[in-house]
Amino acid sequence: MRRLMFPQRKFYRYFFSVVILLGICALLQIVSINFLNFSNRNSQSLYRKTSVAERTRGVREEERHFYILNNENTFRCRDGSNVIRLNQVNDDYCDCQQDGSDEPGTEACPNGRFFCLPEDMYMPSSRVNDGICDCCDGSDEWRAKVLSPMGNARDAPCTDTCREIQDVLEKKRRVKRDGQRAKEEYLEAGKPYIGLNDGLYGRQGEFYLLSQECFYYKKEKLRYTLCPFKENMQESGGNSFLIGAGGRWSTDPRTGENILVMNGGERSRCPQGKKRQTRIKFVCGLKNEILSLSENELCIYTFQLSTPAAC
Questions:
Q1: Phi-psi region of 199 (alpha: psi -120 to 50; beta: other; left: phi over 0)
Q2: What digits encode the pLDDT tens for the residues 53-91?
Q3: Rounded to an integer, what distance in angstroms lies between the CA atom of residue 147 and that of residue 135?
Q4: 288: left (phi over 0), alpha (psi -120 to 50) or beta
Q5: Dist. CA 168–CA 188, nearest whole Å
Q6: What is the pTM of this model?
Q7: Any stretches that span the bilayer, and where are they (predicted)?
């Protein structure tokens, strides 16, 4: 019996030795591949030449000097966490893991930012080369990746739509400029009310004149009479409902904008017996008028009202 077991034991010992040896070989192969990849990237970056245009792709004009050739030929992550060779900027590999500042022009860093020059705005660099034109000049789609045809005008290859956007922005600037001139009348009228009622009419009393007016708006079969800081009435089929009264300033949690909230409306037909509420978003405009009305939540009415007081 012992003579029979000895060869069997020897076989198992040999088998396990082979398995362990194969495992060690596989591990060494993985380590060597990673090392070679790392070495290849570093050796390539030693000789890789980059232009200023490549390095500054997606960079704001005021920050371009960080990405241009210096005596050390290096780039320091904006948060100071790492120093790399200048030609490793925008090479599609994220070296600045904390702030993504070395890859503004590629999608390599999940927290990177790409700057659209014509619109003067940042967007996440994860949207770079995703086949969708976010910047009006198409600069975010420099690889010209083409998505499957879906009939979307914003898909790459991009067309330059900056002229249209610039026209819209110029119109907004003109309205703001002229509106600020018209605002002087509102500031003059509101001087006696600065600081009264906890600043109810604005820090400079600019909204006081609006409290002396009422505005009318019709949507489908409903008519509204909105008197800011006082009351808001809804009329339908000969019946009237108070849908907001008084006024206090609050902040829109989604946009961070200041809005006027008029609580104290009637409870009828509202869920859980809550009172109806009116919210007013003031936007810069050359005249006082209601631009829109929405009821995204039941018994909460949001008005957008243009006025020079908001300029």
A1: left
A2: 889 999 999 999 999 878 888 999 999 999 999 999 999
A3: 17
A4: beta
A5: 31
A6: 0.55
A7: 12-36
